[in-house]
Amino acid sequence: MAVNFRHVLHTTLLLPPPPPHLWPSPLPSCKPTRTKLSATSSPSPSSTQMELHTQGRQKFMEFPFVSAPHRELMVDLVSTVEDRLGSQLLPCTLPPDIQHCQNQNGTAQASLHIRSAHDSSTSKVDFILGSWLHFALPTGAALNITSLSAYLNPSTDAPNLVVELIQSSPTSLIFILDLPPRKDPVLYQEYLQTFYENTKLETRRQMLEKLPEVQPYVSSSLYLRCVLSPTAILIRIQTEDSGPERLEEIIKDQLHPVAKEVVGIWVDHCACGEREVEEEEKAYLKKRDQIIKRKTIEIDLGTNFPRLFGPELAGRVLGAIQEVYDR
Amino acid sequence: MAVNFRHVLHTTLLLPPPPPHLWPSPLPSCKPTRTKLSATSSPSPSSTQMELHTQGRQKFMEFPFVSAPHRELMVDLVSTVEDRLGSQLLPCTLPPDIQHCQNQNGTAQASLHIRSAHDSSTSKVDFILGSWLHFALPTGAALNITSLSAYLNPSTDAPNLVVELIQSSPTSLIFILDLPPRKDPVLYQEYLQTFYENTKLETRRQMLEKLPEVQPYVSSSLYLRCVLSPTAILIRIQTEDSGPERLEEIIKDQLHPVAKEVVGIWVDHCACGEREVEEEEKAYLKKRDQIIKRKTIEIDLGTNFPRLFGPELAGRVLGAIQEVYDR
């Protein structure tokens, strides 16, 4: 069944911010000192907005349909990004029925959270998008997709981030982890060197590839294959022979530490790294980013969401995402 | 041992033209009627040049160190390209000791042939490059690499062609077959549609992937991964269990027909297809092509050739290739 959903790359786990009392974090952030949500360039969110955000985040962070190691992985990644970038992010202001939605007969549920960055000259983040999707299959099994993606703005040319786990049975998981490049790596060799060779991302890919339960995963979308980097981790893990416990063990002991490391590399080198971008190049990045976002939403959600949630609700969800993409 | 040579992607089998008496071919060519070598824009090659070319081609087409099915595959691909494009190509004018070279103790031999296209407004071909390389390993086994690649010029943006077979034992083969894109496919979706989706290249990749002896092959060069298309065939075939005969059977019954089809697609849709290219885009193509060629020679030959043939001979071979690349 995962075959039908393997393009749902960016339906990813919403990254709602932590509740306000948790905002000051002991971990270092891009900026040495934390600022409140009320950055100078943006008005403070109202208490209604914060309430909306907090409730949506709570539901999102439950990851109610996946195993404990799967949930812990996602919560840890979301928390890591929030701890480092939280002060740059606005609360999620999607309407409640889009932050969490379900179909009429309750077989499909989804949580969607998007946090844009402050319109500030200091932030390199465009927005962060997370989601989970649960769909009860007619066979009695269920499809669960959890994901987290982050897009940077044209003040930097550094790569974006995408993490996705697609679980179609207790013994089968597709795992996608990448820093998709924002420039054609064929033309810009320094880019390849800086973000992919110097960071040794390939060693993480190779480590997972060596596990006996792991097979390479090839997306059926040629476009998505082009969007991903040469060190992208795209694997299918199957543990039919050793049961669901082995899959949970792999998530906990292998996927979680690798994902944590890669997200750390993304925060340090991409979201918080310094890059000089000429004005002309900003236009190029803006154009390329826009094409990727539009095409991704078309491939990922355009087909599946209407089937799962009906055209009316799907239209509203896609419209809400599109609005952020076009901002 | 193939690991040490897996970047030798473009040392590929030279495509020397057929002897002059074979030039008129029964197969259709890009141009409905064949022209002689003496196109209006280029002087006729001298008899010395033709002799040099013919001798080099003869040696090249022997493929003396590989199995019959491997040889037949390469001869067929070279002949197919020559039959369709031969009238556009000049003879190979590399010096004899570069068309065929060997090291001092005779453990390494190589054949290299390059044919540039006439400087004609009608040809879309830049040059065609083929090679074979034989290296006797200290273990008694041998490494054999055969390949064919073709580069188009900026009058079209259509993809190039690369075919390579890397055989490190009688039961182990790496097979690379692709039409590498000449534009960033993320930015140009029509390009992806025209050359990769409409041509159904993915069905060929999937067909080979399903063979039980086939595993995906991942180049250790991140740059080469970026250069290849989303439908690139990169596989490792291992037949230890069923012996060398099974590998020969796979080459004959599976690789050969797929390679023939893909080369046919390249000739029809790329080398002979009509594309409109604006002046500004020509500059982009020229720049991108140049970067790929320089980087490829650096990755493929820059490391291995000096080790195999010594610095002096390697320098001359690389210089001869560079001269064609920079033309």
UniProtKB/TrEMBL annotation, chains A, B:
Domain of life: Eukaryota
Compositionally biased intervals (Pro residues): 16-29
Recorded GO CC terms: chloroplast
Molecular function per GO: red chlorophyll catabolite reductase activity
Short name of any one Pfam family annotated for the protein: RCC_reductase
Low complexity: compositionally biased ranges: 38-48
Region (Disordered): 16-53
Protein name per its UniProtKB record: Red chlorophyll catabolite reductase
Organism: Turnera subulata
Species lineage: Eukaryota, Viridiplantae, Streptophyta, Embryophyta, Tracheophyta
